[in-house]
Amino acid sequence: MQAASRESYKVAADRLDAYARGAEPSAVASTADDILSVAALLRREPRLRRALSDPARSGSDRAGLLGEMLRGKISADALDLLASLVSGRWSAPSQLLDGVERLGIEALLASADKAGELGEVEDELFRFGQVVSGSPELSNALSDPMAPAAQRATLVDQLLADKARPITGYLVGAALGGFGGRSFTGALTRLVELAADRRDRQVAYVTVAAPLSDEEERRLGARLSEMYGREVSVKQTVNPDVLGGVSVRVGSDLYDGTVLRRLNETRNALAKR
């Protein structure tokens, strides 16, 4: 998002946090559902997106237009949050759509946080991403934009049945829809990071040839927390192809101490002689 859009989003996000602190988890989840339904509407209706982000209209005018259309169709809480969002300045209609969708996702995460389940939801999202990445056939089935959305959603429901919390399933559904314009796997990764961020944590993606012990993972997490000045959520991937050592990615930082990397460096050096 550009600066104006980021500021408008922040105002609505702060309002969401204040609302979520005083509401029951189920109420916050219901509000999230309403907000995401409006995001789906905006995705289908480009003219409406333009009208609700039109800089020639005042913020109150845009909020009034939203109220005329949606009052009585979504909850008062959802309408209040959305009115706060559309009354801000948006650099482009597409950024308003991104803001509405992000607000709905953050509301889902807030409801999980209120219920004391956010850490588990974060882990379930990551594990599901691992399952998908480990199966090219499954990855293709879920990522194929030509496949009917209902068919892909049914497949997700079957895979997650009795294995994940309802909010995890809802978030995976948002990833199927291309949350934030991303690919399915990219959207899942972003959702993991948003869940961690709401818990005030950084995500460290760790690749190893064999699983780390609980103590090794704890020590690695503690060391990374010291480096980044923030609690770190370690997400471990086992890949025998790396042969040994550890690769760690935190944001754009990559620390690759794997045997495979050293072998490749040696091979490249020999090839240059």
Summarize the structure.
With 273 residues, this protein is an alpha+beta fold.
Order of helices and strands: HHHHHHHHHHHEHEEEH
Q: Tell me the Rg in angstroms.
A: 21 Å
Overall 3D shape: elongated
Q: Major β-sheet, in short? A: 4 strands, mixed
Multimeric status of the protein: single chain
Task: Give me the secondary-structure category.
Answer: alpha+beta
Number of strands: 4
Q: What is the tally of helical segments?
A: 13
Structure description:
GO terms for molecular function: proton-transporting ATP synthase activity, rotational mechanism. It is found in: Cell membrane; Membrane. The chain is an alpha+beta fold. The chain folds into three domains: about 1-115; about 115-200; about 200-270, Glutaredoxin (3-Layer(aba) Sandwich), CATH 3.40.30. It is built from 13 helices and four strands. The protein has helices at about 5-20, 25-45, 45-55, 60-70, 75-85, 95-115, 120-135, 135-145, 150-160, 165-175, 185-200, 215-230, 260-270; strands at about 200-210, 230-240, 245-250, 255. It has a four-stranded mixed β-sheet, sandwiched between helices. The termini are far apart.
